[in-house]
Structure formats: structure tokens, C-alpha cells
UniProtKB/TrEMBL annotation:
Ranges in coiled-coil conformation: none
InterPro entries to which the protein is assigned, alphabetical: Biofilm_reg_signaling (IPR052155), EAL_dom (IPR001633), EAL_sf (IPR035919), GGDEF_dom (IPR000160), Nucleotide_cyclase (IPR029787), PAS-like_dom_sf (IPR035965), Rev_trsase/Diguanyl_cyclase (IPR043128)
Gene3D superfamilies: 3.30.70.270, EAL domain, PAS domain
Domain GGDEF: 372-505
Residue ranges of the TM segments: 39-58, 64-85, 105-124, 155-171, 177-200
Keywords annotated in UniProt: Membrane, Transmembrane, Transmembrane helix
Record carries keyword Membrane: yes
Domain EAL intervals: 514-763
Record's protein name: EAL domain-containing protein
Region forming the signal peptide: none
Species the sequence originates in: Pelomonas cellulosilytica
Pfam families in the record: EAL, GGDEF
NCBIfam families found in the cross-reference section: GGDEF
């Protein structure tokens, strides 16, 4: 078994250079090919001379075939000589495995030539000519096989192609004696092949050893050069009392005393009084223990210097220490300053001067190792992208510096403020008795960062959200602590921003649920698990149907029914909102074709609308489905304008030019609503259900809704009240002259077939949509549903 493994190992070593590997293999290939290149003129000359002798042996009997053979042989020789001529003065330092393969093909052509010569002209030749041909072919076989030994595949292919031709020649000759010759030929060829492979392995091993030796010599040279470059380091020697006895200009320069006064320096006492943290050197000196590269700092601040001290006690031949020392002092001031600078850069944010993520995590790790408790506050700026986009990155950098200053102004003992990257900051609180509780500190941070920031003549606003995570024994590592704080921060931003959230285990479960939904989204889109359900809108006065909202529903085979409040944000996070929005738009337009004279309203995600090709995709959808542009209503929310209002308005105007209607959804829940209404004339305002729900409980809600309706009327916009669930709410909506209503009082969301039944006045069987049992179902006897228009929303 050992012999078998040895054989396969040797075989692998023989052909390992045919696979691109380390740079060393490429250098070995270059050396082998260079050796072969040096032999090329002789080899090609031998081929041409031998070819001429074959011509002499065969004579005119070879005919056209011989002429063609000579042409091929001459061409191969010419190509070989041409390659040699080009590379004769330039040897490539490295060669890829392709060079080896090209050599193999060249050898194969030569092998075919000489094997073909034997096969074609040995049998018909006379006795003397046979001897000449056999001698030539045998000579070319042996010489070529060993000349090509550095390229083992080339040698083997060359050898056995010639042997194959020779075997054909012997068979054609037909003499019984040639059977023995064939056996001998096979034996010789086998020996030649194995010998060539052995030569290849030996040559490769020798080259590897030579390269290794050269590398070792290079390392030694580098070490010697390094020693010479540092020869300015000072050698020193003391007597038994510690006084310097070896004096040199370099040593005097280091100690800052005249050379003639070096003998007054008593080294251990000098270290103890002049150097900082000299304890290890003095202690090693006291116990006569050798030491190496102990670092000493002399002075402080910008004038500080650092030495590396190495020394060993001088002993008598019997090993007794006589009290004298010998050593070397290396001035490492520049290297130490560079190291300090690198350490500072590695743990400090370059823009704000705060600790960076690495420093913050190291501090938290050290606190956990000591068993200290504390809190991590993860802080993220709200709407910082708006600052960068509207005022430029230089203004954004100034905002980050101001934020850093405000955070530093709030720190207490044991607090560490850091910038984690971008517009994300953190505060690690490790104080044993903080003045402010963590929640109080988070509230103060939000308050301070919500105050205006003046950059030049500009007055900028950002705000912040904070996630809090406790550092205690329940936290396994720093990564978990960071994840907990990030989960709390995400929940704070998701629930409205400008607030703080303390991490709870339920947030971890929510995160895992979110991750599961994101993973299932793509499969759900691919397998058609999404469906539109429609909720009608009616005229507030006549209760005639004026449209429907189409709500996207997802029924997962394992997770069950997943609400849009979960899967739509997940689609935005994982980049699938474009596909989901396109699916909703297509299905809504197809549904519109089945409901004549009805329009379709589709709610568009901000991320979907800001896609560069969104307007074109809407136009293509209208053309492909045959739906008129005026029958398509697109609903957007004010969050669309928070990131890039200018680009958003540009796309909305492009949609209006197509003839598409645009509605502003959830009006009154965002920021600067009036400014958006002035910048873009929406067709419809949808009053958020939170106002409708408060109509019967708060008088100011009625005043707000009434103001919205009147303002919309002045601007020529229609109004829709969402979430109408009681007849009392409907009566108030009518009294303030709102145009349309929708909600569970009218109808619940339903599939397209049930919508058709609802519009036709037919009874609806089976579940429509799961809703809170406290909501009173709409009574068909109270409101009749004549059809005029409908709308759809995702």
C-alpha cells in the first residue's frame, strides 16, 4: 500500500506544473522552457538533417506524400526556430501552464511526423534504407524524449506517437522477427518515458531547492541590511556600579550630555528618575535577569521620546555575574509616534473626533469582561439624507460635527460617545451612579438633536431616534448587544421616528419574523400567492359606488395570512417592492377591464415611484391592458416627498401628463402638507382614518376635517374619508360636505368575483375578509350599491 501511494505521489509531482498554482510554479515552468529554448536550434537542425536523410532513403518513391511530409517538418522546425529567435535575449520570469500545453502540441506534431515517416516508408524500403530509417526514427525518439523531459507530457506524447508509427511500420513489414522488435520497442519506450518523468521530477525539485535557497539568502540579506541601517543605535556597557564605561557620540546624543561626561551617568538610577514606567527595566537589573526590547518613555507631550532597551549581565567563565551589563539602546521615537497615530486613527472617527465602532466595541467588551453593567444607546439621525441631497455633503459633514458636539456636551462620568458610521452614533453608559437614567438621557438626546442646526446661512433640521439595550450578564457578547440596540432603534424609526425604544425580547422575535417574511416573499411572488381584494368607495350623499380600493393579500401556505403592514415594508427592504407594485398595477388594470366605465386607483410605494423607469412602465401597462389613462388613479403618501421632493414632483407631473389621476393618501399625518399641495395639484385628498375615528369623540377633529374639505374645495380637489365604520360618522362626514366615503360601514374588502356580485346586488356568501368582530357588518338593506366607478389600492 505504501508503494502504491508513493507511485501516485510521484505521478502527481511529475505533472503538477500543468496546473496554474503558486508563483514559484510559474518560475519553474519558465526555467524549464528556457532550457528547452536553448536546445531548440540543435533540435530543429537535427530534425531538418534527419528529414533530408529520409528524403535520401526514400527517394522518388515518396512522391507527393514525402514532399508534404518534408513541408510539414520544415514548417514545424521554422516555427520552433522563430520562437527561439524571439526569446533568445529575453527569458520570461514566469510562464503559465498554457506555455506547457503549447510545448506539448508542438511535440505532438513532431511525434506525428516521425511516427508517420516510419509507418509510411519503412516497409516498402530496401534493407539498407530500412536500417537508415530505423536509425533515424530511433535516434529522434531517444534524443527528443530526453530533450523534452522537462515537459513530461510533451516527452510522453512525442515518444508514444513515434512508437505508434513504428509499430505500424513493423506490422506492415510482415516479418515474424519484427514481433520481437516490437516488444523491445515497447519496453524501451516505457523505460524512456519513466526516465523522462524522473528527470522532470528531479529537475523540478532542484529548481525548488534553488529558489528556496535564494529566498533564504534574500532574507539574510534583508536582516543584515536592517542591522546596518540601525547601526546608529547606541551600544552601552556599565561597570559593577552601573556607570557607563562604553562611550560614543551616538550614546552622548541620546543621553543629552557631553561625551566626556558619560562616565558620570549611573544607568539604573538615571532610568528610574528620568523615564516613565521604568519599573520593568529596574526590576530586571536588580535580579540580574536579561531583558529585550523593554520600552521606556522620556518626557511627555510633543517632546516625548521613546527608547527600546535590550541588555544582559556580563558573567565570568564560571557563570558568576560580576555586576557589569552590556546592551543596546534604540531610539524608536518616530516609530512610536507613528504607532500612536495609527492607534488613534484605528479607534477615532476622523470626521467628528469621537470614538469609532471598534473603540466602542472594545470598551463594551472590556466592561463585559469585568462584569460591569451599563447601557448602549444606538442613535440614528432622522432625515439626514435630505440634508445631503438638498445642501450638499459638506453641509452634511458639518451637521455630523455639530451632532457630535451636542452629544459630547451631554456625557457624564463613565459615558463614551462614538460614531458608528454614516449618520449613526452611539453612547455607551458605564457609570455606576449616572445622574440621568437611560430613558431620560435618550429623551434629552432626542430633544437636543431636534433643535435647528445653522450651517452658514442655512437653518437645518434633522432629529433623531434612539434604541436602548441593557448591558448585563444576560448579553452573551458585544455583537448581541449591538444587535439588540439596533433592533430597538429600528422599532423606534418604524413607529414614527423622533422617539426612543428599549430593547425587549419580543423585538428579537419580531426581527426573526421579519427575516422569515423577507425570505418567503420571493417564493410567494413566484408561486402566485398574492391576490387583490377590493373595498368599495361610495358617494357620501347618494351612497352610489364611486370606486374601490384593491388591497393586496398574501396567504402563505405555512405562515398563513400575512398583513400588508408586514410584507410591504419587507418588500421595500429586500428590493422586491418594484415586482410587488407591478403585480398590483397589472391585476388592478386587468380587473378594470372586467368592470366597464370604472376607474382604478393604485397606491404606489415611494421606492417604486422613484424608480427611473416607473412612468414608462405605467404607460406600457395602460397600452397593454387597454385601460384609458383617466381611469387609472395612483395614490401616494407624504413620505414620498420627504427624501427627494423635487424628483417626486417631476414624476408626478409626468404621470399627470399621461392623463393619470394622482391622489394624496393619509392626508394630515405627515409634515408640511400645505407646502406639498401648493407644489403639486393633486386630484384627490384622502383624509386619514385617525381623523374620521375621532369625529364622534373630539370636537377639534371635526374642525380639522372640515378645514381640510374646504381647503380641498378651494384647490379643486375631491376628498375621500377613509375608515367610516358607523352611521354617526357618516352623518358628520355628510354635514361637512366630504365627497366620498369608504370603510366597513359600506363594505369590507372582497375578491373580484364577490365585488361583481356586490355591484350587481346579489347576496355574497363565504368569508370576505377577516376583520375585528367589534365592527358592525354593513347592512345591504340600508345602502344599495349602484355602480358607476371603482378604484384600487395596494
Amino acid at each position: 500500500m505504501a508503494r502504491t501511494e508513493g507511485f501516485w505521489d510521484r505521478l502527481r509531482q511529475t505533472f503538477e506544473l500543468y496546473v496554474d498554482g503558486k508563483a514559484e510554479s510559474a518560475r519553474i515552468r519558465a526555467e524549464h522552457l528556457a532550457q528547452l529554448t536553448r536546445l531548440t536550434p540543435l533540435l530543429m537542425a537535427a530534425n531538418l538533417i534527419s528529414g533530408g536523410l529520409v528524403r535520401l532513403a526514400v527517394g522518388d518513391a515518396g512522391g507527393v506524400l514525402l514532399a508534404g511530409w518534408l513541408v510539414v517538418l520544415g514548417a514545424v522546425a521554422a516555427l520552433g526556430l522563430l520562437g527561439w529567435w524571439k526569446r533568445r535575449r529575453h527569458v520570461a520570469p514566469q510562464v503559465s501552464s498554457r506555455g506547457y500545453r503549447r510545448g506539448t502540441w508542438h511535440a505532438a506534431v513532431l511525434g506525428l511526423c516521425w511516427g508517420g515517416a516510419a509507418a509510411l516508408w519503412f516497409a516498402p524500403a530496401g534493407p539498407a534504407e530500412r536500417v537508415l530509417i530505423a536509425t533515424l526514427v530511433t535516434g529522434m525518439l531517444g534524443a527528443g524524449a530526453f530533450a523534452l523531459a522537462m515537459l513530461p507530457w510533451a516527452s510522453i506524447v512525442y515518444t508514444w506517437l513515434i512508437v505508434a508509427g513504428a509499430l505500424v511500420a513493423l506490422w506492415r513489414a510482415g516479418d515474424v522477427i519484427f514481433l520481437a522488435v516490437a516488444v523491445l520497442l515497447l519496453s524501451y519506450a516505457t523505460v524512456v518515458s519513466f526516465a523522462a518523468m524522473a528527470l522532470a521530477r528531479q529537475s523540478t525539485a532542484l529548481l525548488r531547492a534553488r529558489f528556496t535557497q535564494a529566498h533564504q539568502q534574500q532574507v539574510v540579506s534583508l536582516l543584515l541590511r536592517d542591522f546596518e541601517e540601525n547601526a546608529s543605535d547606541a551600544l552601552w556597557e556599565t561597570d559593577a556600579e552601573g556607570h557607563l564605561v562604553h562611550r560614543s557620540p551616538r550614546l552622548a546624543s541620546l543621553f543629552g550630555v557631553p561625551q566626556e561626561r558619560l562616565g558620570e551617568v549611573q544607568l539604573p538610577q538615571w532610568f528610574a528618575t528620568r523615564a516613565l514606567a521604568s519599573g520593568p527595566v529596574v526590576a530586571a537589573w536588580a535580579v540580574s535577569r536579561p531583558f529585550r526590547d523593554l520600552k521606556l518613555q522620556l518626557g511627555r507631550g510633543d517632546h516625548a521620546r521613546w527608547w527600546a532597551i535590550s541588555a544582559k549581565p556580563i558573567t565570568e567563565p564560571d557563570g558568576v555575574h560580576v555586576g557589569c551589563w552590556r546592551g543596546v539602546i534604540a531610539d524608536i521615537t518616530e516609530a512610536q509616534r507613528f504607532e500612536n497615530q495609527l492607534r488613534l486613527q484605528a479607534e477615532q472617527d476622523a470626521l467628528t473626533g469621537l470614538a469609532n465602532r471598534r473603540a466602542l466595541m472594545n470598551a463594551a467588551q472590556a466592561a463585559m469582561a469585568l462584569g460591569r453593567a451599563g447601557w448602549l444607546l444606538s442613535i440614528d439621525l432622522d432625515h439626514f439624507k435630505v440634508v445631503n441631497d438638498s445642501s450638499g455633503h459638506s453641509a452634511g459633514d458639518e451637521v455630523l460635527r455639530v451632532v457630535a458636539g451636542r452629544l459630547l456636551a451631554l456625557v457624564e462620568e463613565g459615558d463614551l460617545v462614538g460614531r458608528l458610521g454614516g449618520d449613526e452614533f452611539a453612547m455607551l453608559r458605564l457609570g455606576e451612579a449616572p445622574v440621568r437614567a437611560p430613558q431620560a438621557m435618550a429623551a434629552l438626546i432626542i430633544d437636543k438633536l431636534s433643535q435647528p442646526i445653522h450651517v452658514g446661512a442655512k437653518r437645518l433640521h434633522v432629529g433623531a431616534s434612539v434604541g436602548l439595550a441593557r448591558l448585563d450578564a444576560s448579553v452573551a457578547n458585544v455583537e448581541d448587544l449591538m444587535v439588540n440596540a439596533d433592533l430597538a432603534l429600528y422599532d423606534a424609526k418604524r413607529s414614527g421616528r423622533g422617539r426612543s425604544v428599549v430593547y425587549a425580547s419580543s423585538l428579537g422575535a419580531a426581527s426573526r419574523r421579519m427575516h422569515t417574511i423577507e425570505q418567503a416573499l420571493r417564493e410567494g411572488l413566484a408561486h402566485g400567492q398574492f391576490e387583490l381584494h377590493f373595498q368599495p368607495k361610495v358617494d357620501a350623499r347618494s351612497l352610489r359606488a364611486l370606486g374601490v380600493e384593491a388591497l393586496m393579500r398574501w396567504e402563505h401556505p405555512v405562515l398563513g395570512s400575512i398583513s400588508p403592514g408586514e410584507f410591504i415594508p419587507a418588500a421595500e427592504r429586500c428590493g422586491l417592492i418594484r415586482e410587488l407594485g407591478a403585480l398590483a398595477l397589472e391585476h388592478a388594470c386587468l380587473a378594470a377591464r372586467e368592470l366597464p366605465r370604472l376607474s382604478v386607483a393604485v397606491n404606489v410605494s415611494p421606492l417604486q415611484l422613484m424608480e427611473p423607469g416607473f412612468v414608462k412602465s405605467v404607460e406600457r401597462m395602460l397600452v397593454s391592458t387597454g385601460v384609458g389613462p383617466s381611469l387609472l388613479h395612483l395614490e401616494v403618501t407624504e413620505s414620498l416627498m420627504m427624501e427627494d421632493a423635487q424628483a417626486a414632483f417631476k414624476r408626478l407631473h409626468a404621470l399627470r401628463e399621461l392623463g393619470v389621476h394622482v391622489a394624496l393618501d393619509d392626508f394630515g399625518t405627515g409634515f408640511s402638507s400645505l407646502a406639498y399641495l401648493r407644489a403639486f395639484p393633486f386630484h384627490t385628498l384622502k383624509i386619514d382614518r385617525s381623523f374620521v375615528r375621532s369625529l364622534t369623540e373630539h370636537s377639534d377633529a371635526r374642525a380639522i376635517v372640515n378645514t381640510i374639505v374646504q381647503m380641498a374645495g378651494v384647490l379643486g380637489m375631491r376628498t375621500v374619508a377613509e375608515g367610516v365604520e358607523t352611521e354617526r360618522e357618516l352623518a358628520i362626514i355628510r354635514s361637512i360636505r366630504c365627497h366620498e366615503v369608504q370603510g366597513y360601514l359600506v363594505a369590507r374588502p372582497m375578491s373580484l368575483p364577490k365585488l361583481k356580485d356586490w355591484l350587481a346586488g346579489r347576496p355574497i356568501t363565504g368569508p370576505i375578509d377577516d376583520v375585528d368582530s367589534r365592527i358592525t357588518p354593513w347592512r345591504r338593506t340600508q345602502i344599495s350599491p349602484p355602480t358607476t366607478m371603482f378604484g384600487a389600492e395596494i
